[in-house]
Amino acid sequence: MNLDCTCFRVRRLSRHISQLYDDALRPVGLRVTQFSLLSALKKNGTMTVTSLADYLGSDHTSISRALATLKSHNWVMLTQGGDKRSTLVEISNLGLEIVREATPYWSNAQQRISDLLGSGTKLELDKGFDELFMRLSEL
Questions:
Q1: What is the 3-class SS of 51-94, one letter each residue?
Q2: What's the whole-model pTM score?
Q3: Would you put residue 89 in left (φ > 0), alpha (ψ -120 to 50) or beta?
Q4: What is the rounded distance in angstroms from the CA atom of residue 22 to the CA atom of residue 29?
Q5: Can you give 12-62 as a three-state secondary structure string?
Q6: Which of 9, 85, 91, 120 is deepest in the core (most CB within 10 A)?
Q7: How far is 69 from 37, CA to CA, in rounded Å?
Q8: Which residues contact 24 (CB under 8 A, 6 or more apart)?
Q9: What is the pLDDT of residues 8-59, one digit of tens each?
């Protein structure tokens, strides 16, 4: 593989950033993927599994697998939607509590990334990532 490959660079960086966040969230027993799911539900309210996957830019299978773990901790509630093929996901009171508890740890990880990059560079990267995501979503 050519190390000049954009995909390689993004995946390598993603692994390191995910590890930094996972390490930061470890004291509350969360992984960054779980925190992201719970935060999305906190922000948006009840969602279908499909809409949650779309919102997070993930696939239905990965989201369903992650939700099973969250459900086992009673952090989310799953119910059948109006359409028998859809499942509704709602954050529970315990889920809201774990997000509140985890947020300072997540904020520390965010600050570490910002400190490493510098705030201007971080803002530029965030904007560039969001723009690229939107363009790729249109393909």
A1: HHHHHHCCCHHHHHHHHHHHHHCCCEEEEECCCCCCEEEEECHH
A2: 0.89
A3: beta
A4: 9
A5: HHHHHHHHHHHHHHHHHCCCHHHHHHHHHHHHHCCEEHHHHHHHHCCCHHH
A6: 91
A7: 11
A8: 105, 106, 108, 109, 112
A9: 999 999 999 999 999 999 999 999 999 999 999 999 999 999 999 999 989 9
Residue with tokens 């299978």: 61
Tokens of 19: 């590890």
Q: Which amino acid is at 96?
A: L
Which one-letter amino acid corresponds to residue 55? Y
- Domains belonging to the chain, first-starting first, are 10-104 (1.10.10.10)
The structure tokens 């954009």 sit at 6
Contacts of 25 (CB under 8 A, 6+ apart): 31, 32, 35, 102, 105, 106, 109
